[in-house]
Structures are given as structure tokens and as C-alpha cells.
Amino acid sequence: MKVVELRLASMECAALGAAHEAASKRLSGIKDEEVALINEIASAESAIDVTRNEYSGVESAYKDVRERLSVLERELSSAERGRELAKARAEEIKRNEARLREDINELRGRADADAAERDRLGAEAAEADAFIDAEGLRLSENSSRLDAISAEYKAMEAERNGHAACALKTNARISEVRHALQNCLKDEDATAAREAKAAGVLDDAGRALSAMEEDRRAVGEALAKHGGRRDALDARMRELREALSALEAGLQEKNREIKEVRAGHAKAAARLSTLEEMERNFENIKGGAKSVMRASGLQGMRGLLADCIEANPGFERAVEAVLGDRLQYVLVEGHKEGVDAVEYLKGNGGGRGSFVPLRDARPLPGMAAVRSGVSGYEGARPLLGEVRVKEGCEVIVHGLLSDAVIVDSLDAALAAWRENGAVRTFVTPGGETVDCQGIITGGAEGGADGGILQRRAEIKKTAALAAALAEKTATLDAAIKETAGAIEAASAALEACREKLHSADIERIGADARLARLNEEMGRLARARTDAQRELSEARSHLEGISAKKLALSGERGGLETNIAAIDERIAGLTAALLRLSEKKEEATRAATEIKISIARARERVEALRKEASAKARQIEETGSRLSAKGREIEAGVAEAARIEGEMSEMKARLDALLGEADAVRKAETALTERLGDLAAAIKGAEAGLKERKANEAAMQGIKAEVSIALKEAEIAFENLCEKTVEKYGVSIDSYRPADDDGIDVENIEPRRAELREKITGLGEVSLGALEEYNELERRHQFLLDQRADLQRSVDALTSAITRINRTTRERFATAFEEINARFKETFPKFFNGGRAELRLAEDADVLEAGVEIVAQPPGKRLQNITLLSGGEKALTATSLIFAIFLMKPSPFCLLDEVDAPLDEANIDRFNAFVKELSRESQFILITHNKKTMETADALYGVTMEEPGISKTITVRF
Question: 304, 397 in Cβ contact below 8 A?
Fold first, then answer.
């Protein structure tokens, strides 16, 4: 066997060397192709980069042209507006000149009229001065008469005032006494009311205290009941927790048990699968029987002799010991089919085999005597009694087992043989035999799985065990589900009990709070009752004092009223005399007043005439100045008109130049647009070619992987072969050289090795898991290859998607950036009342990686980065940018959260005005604390907390 296997190993080593060399050459060629393809890909990518760089340059030039065109269009617009303004100004100057000449004529006529009016006013002023002198003499005479009347009136008035002062004091005292009496009455009423109120409070407090005492007693009883209820709930929760713990422990035990049962079931199922696989592959059959059973073209084959026999449990070894290799006899229909099978084995080198013809089999002689029993042997019984035979095979099986007797032990077998063993074979249940010649056979078999019958008995036993374990698994699953349901129910009951306990605690807390409130209220009522008692006592004492005070005030009032009557009579006489003097004084005063009025009127008239004359003089001077100014204005208008005519000629020339330059820029823009389209198409075509090359590279990688795997497999096979020969025979196969005279027929070496292996198989079992392990590794290897190919496809798809997304993102970003920048340029001046601002991309080749800079120029400042602005300017600039982004694609509503917080009052007004303007199209929701912003809102929604812990919303609509 060693020489054969070494020769085969040498041949296999040579074949592996040739395969390794071929695979190495193919791998080298694939690597060369891969390097060439990688170079092509690198060249393609380089070309694409060049095209992209050119595209970026053209795109930059296109942007410059667009900016220049925009500047030219603005200059054109500005020039056209300037020309229109100049033309309008020239026409306005002509109209103004005509109007000024009309004004000059009108002013000259007005100056002549003002001179005549000035002379008339001077004459009227002289007449008024003469009237004032005459009226002054009359006023002097009337003043002397008035002074005498005034002195008499003053003396009489002083006497009356003295009596009036005395009367006033007396009346004041009378009023004080009356007021004191009224106050006594009011005080008396108030004190009586206090007395009644104190008595009422006293009664109410007594009744309230009685009622609260009852409430406190009821709350105490409720608290006692809550305590008992809580104790009961605590006990119930302890019971539920204990029950839940027991159920969870039972569930854990069942889970552990089902885990063990499932492991046993998996082990039994695996063992059953292995045994059935061995049975299907005829692992325990050797030689020709195995070849015939595996052959598919033979007719009349009816299985093995072992298929006809089923031994009772425990007697499989005994039957196998008696029958031995005869269990591998092949059952055929007749002799013809047996001959065909022998010819098949001879033709295919399948070994030797024995064939039992079912139709032509003959019964053995003496079978009737065998069936009569073995009663002459103590403790012995026929082996046929321990087997069941398939219908139609009785003759064959009975013939083979007719002389077999089962005994309990080897000693019993020897004793029986000595008595009469000439025609008997004695066998023990363990498989020890004593044949008719006295030959003893026994010992331990080398196989790990026993014979055919033992293996079939094990299959049956393992199947029964697997079924029992499956049934037990189902039972445990049901028990686990039932226990889980019980745990869920117990958990629900525990949660319900916990909720009840929580509710009881809440009720107890409420009762405690109510009891505390009752105690507090009772204390307050007790204090109120004490205060009421004190108030009642004080009111009654005060009423007694008021009564005494009323009597004293009434006596004093009577005396004062008598004195005031006499004083009033004297005052009346003096008043009548003063009335007569007052009439005389009034007459003199009226005359003096009339004289003064006439003098004042005359003086006012003189003053007005003089002022009017001065005004006319100034008006005449102003008219002359205005005439001079209008003459100068006419001269300036004529000069300005001449200058505007010259500027209009220059503007027309400038406009023509700008139009020509704009046409040239538009043509350049068209050319650059076409160039950009050509470059984009070129990039697209290059990317398609690059994608195809990368796909070829991926396919090449797959082929390379396959060849590398084949090369590695050849190396591994060679290493395994070397290790196997070294381990088994101590010979290195790479240095082994077979001898020419070893007598081995190379052409028939495989049948020879098969025959030798069949003999070795009879010596012991081989590893049954190697093939399964190889198949598992083969499936794993194929799975990894499929996964690698799938990952490569995913990488290609992802790369393509990233390229497409980047291109779309660049286009959309550029469009959005331009639009937002235009909006930003519009919104910024509105927030700053002037100035300018814009967005700029930082210097970078890729717009997706470039930063965005914000530059702004508020009114009166230079253009600078937003980081150099003040805090308020930053906030206002950021706000204008936010609105610019919003205006690019307005939404139905917009939420602003304290955007106006950093703004001052002036900026707040502009912010509110802008929001108000935009609110015509979109609804704005502002979160703010600024009063001015609130004033501009259509509705206010606020949240207040009137009571601690309780929020309340307030809505105000305008």
C-alpha cells in the first residue's frame, strides 16, 4: 500500500506541479494585462482631469464675461438714465426761464404799488398821533376823581372786612361743631356697625369651628382607613412579587431545560442524519456488494440480506456474529440476475460479491428438526426467535440461522457445546460464538459504529429519541408560553396593585393636606373669634364716650348761633353803603377805561401803520433783490443749458461705445457657452470610457482572483500531499523518485489502491466529517467570492453615483449661490438704508469644497469681511442674508426665534418694516421680547403663570 500510494502521490505531485506552472503563467499574463489596463485608466483619468481643468478655466472665463456683461448692462442703464435726466433738465431750464421773466414783470408792478401804499400809511400815522394827545388830557381829569372815591371805599371796606372776619370765625366754629356732631353720629353708626359685625363674626366663627371640627374628625377617620388599605395593598404586592419571582425562576429553569433538550435534539438529529447518510452511501458495505448497490443499470437487484432481517433490541450483535459478512449478500430475483451482477463486477473491477437468488433458493436439510426447538439445552433458545424476517425471505434466513442458539454467556455456550454441539452454533447477546467445531470467536470490534444491524438499530433508536425530544421541546415551549403568560398576568396585577397603592398614597397626601388646611383654618377662626370679642368690647366703650361728646357740642352750637346774628346785621348795613360807592367808582372806572382803550387803539393803529410802512419798504427792497436774483437765475439757466447740451453729446458717444462693447461681450459669452457644452460632452464621453475600463479592470480582478485561488489551491494541495506522505510514511514526496523495478502496473494502479483501501477499511473507520467539512469550506469559499464580486459592483455603482451627485450638486449650488447673492444684494441696502454686500467663494478648485465669504459695506464704511463688523452690524447682515435665502424660494409661513434680540431701536424699525412688507405673501411667526416688534404684530400669544406651577395662554388680536 505504501509503494502504491507513494507512486500515486508522485504522479499527483507531478500533475500539481504542471497545474501550478500553468496557473502561474496565466496569472503572470493576467497581471501584465491588468498593469496595461491600469495604465490606460490612469491615462484616461489624467485626460479627464485635463479636460476638467480646461472646463474650470473656461467656466471661470465665462463667469468673468458674465460679470463684465452685467457691469456693461448696468453702465448702459445708467448712461441711458443720465441722458434722459439731462434732456429733462434742459427742458425744465427752458420752462423755468419763461416763468422767471413773467415773475420779473409781476414783481416790478408790485414794487410800484407798494411805494404808493407806503406814502398813504405815513399820513394816517400823523393823524393818529394828534388824537392820542387829546385823549390823554381827559384821562388825567378822570383819574383824580377816581382816587377820591377809592379812598372812601377802602376805609368802609376795611370795617366791613373786620366784621366779616369775626363772622367767619364764628361760622367756622359753628361748622366745626356741626361737623363734630355729624362725625359723632357717623362714628356712632360705624361703632354700632362694628359692634354688629363683631357679634356676627363671633357667631360665624363658632359655627365654622364646629363644622370644621366635624370635618377634621372625618378626615382623621379617612386617614385611618387609607392606612389599613395601604397595608393590605403592601401585603398584596409582596404576594405578587413572590409569585412573580417564583414564576420567573420557573421560567428560567424551563428555558435551561429546553435549551438542554434542544441541544440533545440537535445532537440526535445530527447523529441520525450522519447515520442515514452512511446508510444511503452504503458505508458499512464493502467489495462487490457496495459496487452493485451503487450501480444504476443492473436489473433484478432486491437489496441486501440485512434488509430482510430485524433483530430484537439487544440481539443485533448476536445476529451479526452468526451471519458475519453474509449480511452483505445481495438479494436478486434469480440466478440470471446473479450472473449479470458478477459479470458487472468483473467488467468494472468492482471487487467480489455474493448473490442470493430469491426465486431459485433451496431450503436446507434438517430444518424441521431445527424448528422443533432446543429444549435439551438448559437456558438456550433458537436465535430465530429473536429476529423478524421480511416476507419472501424466510427460506434464506431460516437456512442461515437454523443452527444458531442464543445463550446467556460464553460459559453457558461452552457447556451446551460439550453436551451436544455437533450441529449447533452457540452465540451470546454480546456476540461471542462457539461453532460446531468448538472454535471460540469474540472480543471488541474495531469499528466505532458497529455492524449493519447495529447501525440500523441505532438509527431506529436515534429517530425515536429525536421524536421524543421534539415532543418534549413542544411541551416545554407550551409550558414556557404558559409561564410567560402567567408572568405577564402577574406583572399586570403587580402594576395594577402599584397603581392602586399610588392612588392611595395620593389620596392620603390629599387628606393630610386637607387636615393641615383644616387645622390652619381652625386656628385662623379661633384668632378671628378672639379679635371679634375684643372688637365688640371696644365698640361698646366707644359708644358711651360718643354720647357725652354729643351733649357738650349741642350747648356750644346754641351760643355761637346767637353771636353770629348780630354780626350779620352790621355787615348788611356796611355792604349797602359799599354798594353805592362801588357804583360811583365803577362809573369813573368805566370812563377811564374807555379813554385808555381809545388811546391804546390809536397807539396800536399808529404802530401798525408804521410797521406796515416799514414792511412795504422792506418788501420794495426784497422785490428788487428778487428781481436781481431772478435775472442771475436766468443767466445760470442759459449757461447750464449750454453745458447740458455738451454733456448730452458726450453721453451719446459713450452710449454708442458701451453698446458696441456689450455686443462684443455677448458674442464672447455665446462662444464660451458653446465651448462649455463641448467640454461637458467630452468629459461625459471620457467618463463613460473610464467607467468601461474600470468595469474591465473589475472583471480582470475577478479572473485574477480565480487564478490566484486555483494557484493557491494547487500549492495547498501540494503542501497537504507533502505533509501527508511525511506524516504517514516519513517520505518527502518532492524528493521521492519511484524505482523502476517496484513491480507496479501504472495502468491498473487505481484499482489496486481501491482494493488496498477496501482492505484497510475493513481494519477500521475513517473520519466521516472530512467530506462534510470540505463541502462546508467549498460553500464558504464560493460565498466569499460572490460577496467580493458583489462588493466590487457596489463600489463601482457607488463611485458612479458619487460622480453624478457631485456634478448635479455643483450645478445646483452654483445656481442657488448666484440667486441668493442677487437677493442678498437687494435685501442688504433695505436693512442699512444704503450700502452694499455680496457673497464670495473662497479660492478653491472645487466649489463643493470652497468656503463662502460674506463681505459688506454699511453706509459710511469701507468694504470688509463680516468678521470685522460690529455685533449689531453682524446681526443685521445675517438677518438680511436669512431673508435673501427665504426670498429665493418663499414658503407659506416662516418662524423667527428672537432674531431681533441683538438689534437696536433704529434697526428694529427697519427689520419690522421689512417683515411687514413680506407678510403680504407669507405668514410670519415671531418669538420676541421687543415692544416695537409686538406693536407691528396682528396677534399676540403669551404664556403667563398667575399661580405657581400653572401656565396659562393669553391671546390678543388687533
Answer: no
Nearest 5°: the CA angle 544, 549, 555 is 140
Cβ partners under 8 Å of residue 454, min gap 6: 316, 317, 320
pLDDT tens for 839-853 read 988 766 677 788 888
Q: Is 659 helix (H, G, I), strand (E, B) or coil?
A: helix
Structural contact between residues 705 and 781, judged by C-beta atoms closer than 8 angstroms: no
Q: What is the mean pLDDT of the chain?
A: 76
Q: Which residue has the cell 500510494?
A: 5
Residues in the chain: 958
Alpha-carbon distances of 259 from 124, 250, 484, 559, 689, rounded to whole Å: 136, 14, 16, 123, 59
- Alpha helices (runs of H) in 730-842, residue ranges in sequence order: 749-763, 769-832
- The residue among 681, 684, 800, 686 whose CA lies nearest residue 44 is 686
DSSP 164-205: HHHHHHHHHHHHHHHHHHHHHHHHHHHHHHHHHHHHHHHHHH
Pull the grid cell for residue 438.
468448538
Pairwise CA distance, residues 798 & 639, whole Å: 76
The secondary element (H helix, E strand) that includes residue 894 is strand 893-897
C-alpha–C-alpha distance, residues 161 and 820, integer Å: 91
Of the candidate ranges 579-583, 841-845, 893-897, the one whose mean pLDDT is the lowest: 841-845
Cα-based distances in Å from 80 to 75, 612, 650, 651: 8, 54, 12, 8
Cell representation of residue 266: 440537535
Which stretches does DSSP call E strand in 84-178?
none
pTM above 0.70? no
Sequence-distant (≥ 6) Cβ neighbours of residue 358 within 8 angstroms: 302, 331, 332, 333, 334, 392, 393, 396
How do 404-406 and 425-427 pair as beta strands? parallel
| CB contact set of 6 (below 8 Å; sequence gap of 6+) | 725, 729, 731, 733, 736, 738
Helix (H) or strand (E) holding 405: strand 404-406
Torsions phi, psi for 70 (to 5 deg) = -65, -40
833: three-class secondary structure by DSSP: coil
CA distances 156 to 164, 321, 578, Å, are 12, 174, 7
Q: How far apart are CA 874 and CA 869, in angstroms?
A: 6
User: According to the model, what pLDDT value does residue 283 have?
Assistant: 64
Q: CA 576, 581, 584, 587 torsion: positive or negative? A: negative
